[in-house]
Design a protein that fits this description.
Structural class: alpha/beta
Number of helices: 11
Radius of gyration: 36 Å
Largest sheet: 3 strands, antiparallel
Number of domains: 4
Order of helices and strands: HHHHEEEHEEHEHEHEHEHEH
Length: 329
């Protein structure tokens, strides 16, 4: 470096070589790539290759290799219908109303289809429960139809835990041969809300009277059912109206995320969290007591972190304070 404001670009710049000075006056100035790394004899053989030429050669070489290595583009033929269904128009989507049920998750949905293939799921805006709301599980359900790893055949599990594949006709025949009017039959099923499924079970039990249906849920609400039966005399799951509540005190119940009916509860809760105008400037207030972070707790106005062992004591403390305010003891 000559001084604090001058930088040498190489040996030729330091000595003031005339060829370098003439090149620097051009609009697009390129320093040779090889001149600093090779001898004068090698320069005469290789020429004065610069960065621009190097990128040209590189791009041409990569493009030529890609063209030479590429295979023939597959031919996809659009074959028209011989007898086109009236409800299907190529390129125009159809919508079908249905219901999504997965464990405790129940959502009325609209299924968007093209040429008979479901491609998108949204909530049904005409539903009085969800008002068009939906959940991530419901929207992701359409991916199950295109899962290449799902089981495509029926199978029979042997004593050594191996599975023998069989077609559906053989499976039906095997089951029918094993059934008889006097057989003791047990049907294991999760909780199901479908009236068609209930009618099918009723018809099956009428033909085979010794049939018993065993209901099992991996995530059961039996504790809530028994508690309501013990306290209120009704074995059922309650329904809530969060849109009518002014103050919500929540104890480890993630009703915005996973508890009972989160899609329905989220719509109700959001209605009372919006200030419509200056004359009705009122919002509900939510206080959450929880042991771990939940979606409900993250949206609460006040979140109190408690240990799991402190849950019962916290409920009793709040109950006593409410009773005292109402004039009780």
């Amino acid at each position: 470096m000559k001084d604090n404001q001058t930088i040498w670009l190489g040996k030729d710049d330091l000595t003031g070589k005339k060829d370098l000075l003439e090149q620097s006056k051009q609009e697009f100035y390129e320093l040779p790539v090889l001149n600093e790394l090779s001898t004068e004899e090698e320069d005469s053989q290789l020429g004065t290759s610069n960065r621009r030429d190097f990128l040209k050669y590189l791009g041409f070489g990569v493009g030529a290799a890609a063209i030479a290595a590429s295979c023939e583009t597959p031919v996809r033929r659009a074959i028209p219908y011989v007898n086109k269904p009236d409800a299907i128009v190529p390129g125009v989507a159809n919508f079908y109303a249905s219901s999504f049920v997965n464990g405790k998750d129940f959502v009325p949905i609209l299924v968007k289809t093209r040429e008979g293939r479901p491609i998108k799921i949204e909530g049904n805006p005409q539903s009085p429960l969800t008002h068009g709301g939906t959940s991530a599980r419901a929207q992701a359900m359409v991916l199950e139809l295109y899962d290449s790893t799902r089981v495509k055949h029926a199978g029979k599990i042997n004593d050594d835990t191996t599975v023998d594949q069989m077609d559906w006709e053989a499976l039906d025949a095997t089951i029918q041969n094993a059934l008889s009017a006097g057989s003791n039959i047990r049907i294991l099923t999760p909780s199901n809300y479908s009236p068609s499924f209930a009618e099918a079970l009723k018809t099956f039990k009428a033909k085979y009277p010794n049939t018993e249906v065993v209901t099992y849920d991996a995530h059961s609400n039996s504790a809530m059912l028994l508690a309501n039966q013990n306290q209120f005399g009704t074995k059922g799951i309650p329904s809530y109206h969060f849109d009518k509540a002014e103050v919500i005190v929540n104890f480890n119940a993630d009703f915005l995320g996973t508890w009972i009916a989160p899609v329905q509860f989220a719509h109700q809760w959001a209605k009372n969290r919006k200030i419509k105008d200056a004359h009705h400037a009122h919002m509900s207030r939510m206080i959450a007591f929880e042991s771990h972070m939940t979606l409900t707790g993250s949206n609460a106005d006040s979140r109190v972190v408690i240990r799991p062992s402190e849950l019962g004591l916290s409920i009793a403390k709040v109950h006593n304070e409410v009773a005292k305010a109402m004039g009780g003891t």
